[in-house]
Amino acid sequence: MSSMALSLGMSAISAAGQIKAGRAEQEMYDKKAAQAVLKGDIEAAQYKQMGADVLTRLNENFAALIANSAVGGGSTLAIATHSEAEASREYSIAADNAILAKEDATSQAEQYKMAGDAAMQSARIGAISTLFQGFSKASQLSPGVIKPGVIT
Questions:
Q1: Residue 107 domain-assigned?
Q2: Are the beta carbons of 101 and 43 closer than 8 angstroms?
Q3: Per the domain annotation, does 150 fall within a domain?
Q4: Rounded to two decimals, what is the model's pTM?
């Protein structure tokens, strides 16, 4: 095997390795993006559950107020109004947090996707550079065999 063929072969193997490494890095970032979205979905579900729990407690408070007023417990309107306002505030916070969790997860997933795309692009550029270096080295090892601008 000539030194020119060996140089070209090694360059091609190295370039293929760079592409494979870039693809693996891109896949890693794609998996991180999927995990970020899943994490956001889980957090959003937890916040929605918190909101549901707030409404459950409000219903329990109303039931207790109704029972208490039936036995002559006094005015319940002020307590009911306060309970409703507090529950409304807590429910709104939980709903907002659910939305924010999803948006944050989507944003992080997009960043991971862009990082994966950049890794693949870098691998391609590195592979092309490696191939050109191999051709350059081959032309130095066997002058006259590879001629610039001449396609055979």
A1: yes
A2: yes
A3: no
A4: 0.73
Angle (CA) 62-63-67 rounded to 5° is 115
Residue 149: pLDDT over 80: no
Which residue in the block uniquely carries the two structure tokens 């693809």?
23
Query: Contact at 8 Å (CB) between 12 and 132?
Result: no
| DSSP state, residue 1 | -
Do 68 and 76 meet the contact criterion of CB atoms below 8 Å apart? yes
Q: What is the number of domains present in the chain?
A: 1
Joined tokens for residue 115? 């990082």
Measured in degrees and rounded to the nearest 5, phi and psi for residue 148 equal -60, 135
Burial of 93 (0-12, 13-18, 19+ CB in 10 A): middle
**Structural domain containing residue 50:** 3-141
> Is residue 149 in some structural domain?
no
- Exposure letters 33-50 (e unless 16+ CB within 10 A, then b): beebbeebeebbeebeeb
Q: Say whether pLDDT at 126 is over 60.
A: yes
Higher pLDDT, 141 or 132: 132
- Does residue 146 belong to any structural domain of this protein? no
Question: How many CB atoms within 10 Å of residue 72?
Answer: 6
